[in-house]
Backbone:
């Protein structure tokens, strides 16, 4: 029996997906929203977390790290993500969190079942159709420092506020913003935020 | 038999939802992504369109109007939407498109089946849990003109470009942006865009 915790923020969707997965005799299926998922990992002790990369509470990358919450004496669950090729930033986040499985939400649902079984054995599972997304994830143009500037700008912080938070001068923040605008091919700061959110960098 | 066209941009989710709905003997279920949905309305001629308000191609309101595409001699389908209370702008768009049914994605999936049956009879169906969302939709603070300015700003257009598109002076555009920032309780232009996208106004 493979214990699966399905993480998705829409109750309607995750209930129906869980019901559908329960038709497989070898799967024991539980489900939770992102908020509260780490608690459910500790109580359910799943073999596999199958997590949707969209998270209602944040633009961008959900708290994937929390799914690996360690319980003494119990191996952490293996991670499989439900992803889209057009949000490379989210794919990059999943790679960094050590996900073994990558199921394309544009594909057939049977792929999710295959993916769960392989990942439960500790094997990698990657939908080919996500290939272009991984390529774009590898080409992510911004440095970590530039990203932290842009995250604050996207939250509505002024240049002075960003400078204060990151212990930089106003001029340095302006230089970062100019570099970000150039590297993302944007017309201006607002356009750079729009492009970066669309790609899932933020 | 009620003919239902399920519109959702994730193939994996809409296939499983359609499968789940097909267990009801009185429902004939078809499905499509937003792109191409209007063509499917013409070929399937559904009694009810059950459409997710999230659309992969746009921030904000999906092209609900296209689902009402008229075929001579055939009544247009009735519209039911899958919605969240925390995106009042999307609820407002659905009301304006004449939707009869409003199913909360935070609720149990059985509500979707109930909703489809009532809407097919031409009756209204509204999940109580969406109430606060409708209240906020009614309190939408921006005028139509302010919204059109903000939509262009969110796309990365400069003040001069917005002025050119809307046949306004630069000063008038700046006045609109100041009013928008004040009315949304934002700290600045970027913050006003962030708040408005979060609410689903854009």
Residues:
């Amino acid at each position: 029996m493979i214990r699966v915790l399905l993480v998705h923020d829409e109750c309607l969707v995750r209930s129906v997906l869980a019901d559908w997965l329960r038709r497989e005799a070898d799967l024991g299926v539980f489900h939770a929203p992102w908020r509260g998922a780490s608690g459910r990992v500790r109580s359910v002790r799943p073999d596999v977390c199958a997590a949707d990369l969209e998270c209602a509470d944040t633009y961008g990358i959900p708290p994937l790290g929390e799914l690996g919450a360690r319980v003494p004496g119990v191996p952490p669950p293996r991670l499989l993500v439900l992803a889209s090729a057009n949000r490379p930033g989210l794919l990059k986040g999943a790679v960094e969190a050590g996900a073994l499985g990558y199921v394309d939400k544009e594909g057939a649902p049977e792929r999710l079942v295959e993916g769960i079984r392989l990942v439960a054995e500790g094997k990698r599972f990657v939908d080919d159709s996500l290939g272009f997304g991984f390529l774009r994830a590898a080409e992510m143009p911004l440095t970590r420092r530039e990203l932290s500037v842009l995250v604050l700008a996207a939250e509505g912080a002024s240049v002075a506020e960003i400078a204060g938070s990151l212990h930089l001068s106003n001029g340095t923040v302006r230089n970062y913003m100019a570099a970000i605008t150039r590297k993302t091919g944007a017309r201006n700061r607002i356009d750079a935020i729009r492009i970066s959110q669309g790609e899932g960098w933020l």
In short: The first strand of chain A starts at residue 2 and ends at 7. Chain A has a mean pLDDT of 91. The domain at 144-199 of chain A is CATH 1.10.10.10 (Arc Repressor Mutant, subunit A).
